[in-house]
């Protein structure tokens, strides 16, 4: 696959403190090309080695996680999906903190800072005067966010938000330069453990609906 463009991510977590006891329980990645067109989507639950945290928010239960891989299991494929791409998220500092914390727990250290982009911060320019939460941004632009706080839903909505920003930019040279900068910094690879990703559908999605 091409390694040029953007990788929008979203984590669902057991809590807010990446450097403490909180862990990732789900991640989604959405690829977009340098012009913002979505070209691929991936997601998986992650066994955090502890309870799932705020089930009322992310609707992930211990039952869902019983067959999920660990972060170390999915890290090689995740790094491959992120390598050479601009890391995008809505509140990217939150998702990047969890990414770096989880990578650190398996002994992986980045040689260079990630090239990243925050759609929440960009809302100051593209959607001035509005509340900058993902739901508010998506509502004003007509982007579907049904099923929010599911990583695959939030990541896709954020990728579409990025595309909307790009569509309202007359000169896209800045976007392309950012993508080129990320392409020049590929991430060191890890050997695959051969573990398949485990999206919610495999875990029995109807379980989640009990908490809707």
From TrEMBL:
**CDD domains named in the record:** DEDDh
Tell me the organism: Herbiconiux flava
Please, one GO biological process term? DNA replication
One MF term in GO for this entry?
DNA binding
Looking up InterPro entries in the UniProt record yields: DnaQ (IPR006054), Ribonucl_H (IPR013520), RNaseH-like_sf (IPR012337), RNaseH_sf (IPR036397)
Lineage at the top is: Bacteria, Bacillati, Actinomycetota, Actinomycetes, Micrococcales
Q: Where is the Exonuclease domain?
A: 5-171
Q: Has the keyword Hydrolase been applied to this entry?
A: yes
Q: What is its EC number?
A: 2.7.7.7
Membrane-crossing ranges are none
UniProt name for this protein: DNA polymerase-3 subunit epsilon
Keywords of the record:
Exonuclease, Hydrolase, Nuclease, Nucleotidyltransferase, Transferase
């Amino acid at each position: 696959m091409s390694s040029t463009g953007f990788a929008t991510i979203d984590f669902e977590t057991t809590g807010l403190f990446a450097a403490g006891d909180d862990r990732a329980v789900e991640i989604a990645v959405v690829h977009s090309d340098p012009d913002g067109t979505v070209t691929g989507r991936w997601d998986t639950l992650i066994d955090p080695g502890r309870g799932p945290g705020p089930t009322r928010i992310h609707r992930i239960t211990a039952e869902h996680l019983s067959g999920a891989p660990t972060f170390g299991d999915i890290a090689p494929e995740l790094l491959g999906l992120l390598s050479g791409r601009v890391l995008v998220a809505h509140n990217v500092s939150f998702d990047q903190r969890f990414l770096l914390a989880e990578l650190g727990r398996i002994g992986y250290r980045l040689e260079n800072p990630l090239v990243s982009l925050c759609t929440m911060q960009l809302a100051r320019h593209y959607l001035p005067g509005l509340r900058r939460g993902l739901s508010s941004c998506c509502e004003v632009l007509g982007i579907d966010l049904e099923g929010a706080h599911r990583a695959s839903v939030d990541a896709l909505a954020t990728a579409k938000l990025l595309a909307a920003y790009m569509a309202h930019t007359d000169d896209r040279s800045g976007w392309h330069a950012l993508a080129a900068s990320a392409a020049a910094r590929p991430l060191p690879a890890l050997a695959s453990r051969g573990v398949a990703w485990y999206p919610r559908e495999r875990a029995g999605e109807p379980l989640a609906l009990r908490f809707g």
